[in-house]
Design goal:
- The chain is an alpha/beta fold.
- The chain has 9 helices and 13 strands.
- The protein has an 8-stranded mixed sheet, with helices on both faces.
- β12, α8 (about 230-235) and β13 (about 240) form a beta-alpha-beta unit.
- α1 runs parallel beside α9 (about 250-255).
- The two termini are about 15 Å apart.
């Protein structure tokens, strides 16, 4: 008996992509099989749209949740947009400059660093397969900024969380956090797409591997953590599968009965 269609979200880094920033062949086969079975497959990433385009094209996907839920596209239509308020961004920028912490600002198509070069920025972005961005003093002028990357250690982050209540901080690397509008999360973006397509939370499946997936896991009817996920995310998950390079996507979907 054929299954009713499900909406399946995949994080990118550490989930669809292995440690070499490649999509394993088994994951590609799994996504194709899901689509052929009539399910809807979408990306749910902290990346900006221009940073996830190669993955989207490789997997021939029409929908994605980007910027950890702040920018949602479906079949070429922007269905949700939640940029950071300019006053909150300006206050963050001023404080980070005084603290010596670089920021990377991202809109839907470009990014710019608050400093011409910083080794921590280079290290973190290289892990995503992205080169160090340029510097433009006027980048944020008359531009919608959906997310920034703040480069500081975990020991230094408390002062930001305590000071900026209009912003939400999510650590994705030992040296960097994503900064979103308060209340922003992947769950918000995922729910917007699910509502548009007529799926209930019980019909939503989510794969992820990091702290920015926690709200999405709480929303989804079935959540599957990769083997490399931190313990708090694994505790939230319905199931823990293998790492990406160990065919974790394929095995997770088999466990869920979707393949």
């Amino acid at each position: 008996m054929a299954q009713s269609p499900k909406l399946i979200f995949f994080d990118i880094d550490g989930t669809l992509l292995d440690r070499h920033n490649r999509i394993p062949a088994s994951a590609k086969q799994a996504v194709l099989a899901l689509k052929e079975a009539g399910h809807v497959v979408a990306l749910a990433s902290g990346r900006s749209p221009f940073m996830l385009e190669q993955v989207r094209l490789e997997l021939e996907l029409e929908s994605y949740v980007s910027f950890n839920g702040q920018y949602v596209m479906h079949q070429g239509e922007l269905i949700h947009s939640n940029p950071i308020r300019s006053d909150a961004l300006n206050q963050l920028s001023a404080f980070a400059e005084l603290s010596g912490h670089p920021l990377v600002y991202l809109d839907h198509s470009q990014m710019s660093c608050s400093q011409e070069y910083h080794a921590h920025v280079d290290l973190c972005l290289t892990s995503l397969g992205v080169t160090h961005p340029g510097y433009s003093k006027s980048f944020c002028t008359n531009r919608l900024i959906y997310q920034t990357m703040l480069f500081c250690s975990s020991e230094e982050e408390t002062v930001y969380r305590d000071r900026f209540h209009e912003l939400h901080f999510v650590r994705w690397h030992p040296l960097s956090m994503d900064v979103l509008p308060a209340g922003g999360s992947k769950a918000e973006g995922v729910s917007r797409l699910a509502d548009r397509l007529g799926f209930s939370p019980e019909q939503v499946y989510a794969f992820g591997d990091n702290f920015n997936d926690m709200e999405m896991f709480r929303y989804a009817g079935c959540s599957i953590a990769m083997g490399n996920a931190p313990h708090p995310l694994q505790q939230l998950a319905s199931h823990v599968t293998a790492n990406a390079e160990q065919d974790g996507i394929w095995h997770g979907l088999k466990w869920a009965g979707l393949l």
